[in-house]
Amino acid sequence: MTVAAIQPEEASQADAEPRRRRLALVASKGTLDQAYPPLILATTAASLGWEVGIYFTFFGLDILHRDRFEKLKMASLANPAGPIKIPNLLGAVPGATAAATKVMKHWMRKSQMPDIAEFIEMAQGLDVTFFACATTMGVMGVKESDLIEGCDIAGAAAFLDFAAAADVQLFV
Amino acid sequence: MTTKTTRPEETETLDTSGLLCPLPVYKAALALKQLKEGNVLKLICTDPGSLEDIPALARQRGDVLLATERGEATQTFWLRKGTMQ
User: Which positions in chain A touch B48 (Cβ < 8 Å)?
Assistant: First the structure.
């Protein structure tokens, strides 16, 4: 067994660059419409020169799941503001979610908005940190190999350690 | 309506017509990264949010918003790159 000595961090920050602003986001939802806001905020903040981290937890982890992020759905049930104006109860009818998802994707394409895959690429290109919630992985049986490249598997403490030094923290 | 008198000379021009947030800011930041400090980016936007977003981009990145020209459906901004990469 080897024991690695941990060096205390440099105490002096005198000649360090001025600290960049930091954004810490939690993405907890795995529906198509709820996947966009954290990715839009993250790419914007990174464009402003901020340091950005997103903690993907519970169904939000689907956004990092290589087989699921392109299949996120727009829920029709329990979403009276959804793209198809139907009585809420009919949102449970087979096909309603697929239809709402199709409309939502059409709207986004028509508006020249990037899709989820493109937003992920944009965010990673701007060095946004993707924290994958380790507990969610355990609970939902998600393996590291199920996730897209470049995720940091982390628990709540590691994310809070990042968020504690953030200027803006938001839960989506 | 014109809110400036003389147009600054731009080094590069970026047209984001038709694009919505976050793309004008995202693409402007990428374009600014390619410029040298002191160079000027002319940025054309149709996103109505850009009237607030582009000054915010300049403030946060430390670039200087030299001028704004407001047309019917188009806003044009001249940004002088600051020290941030």
Answer: none
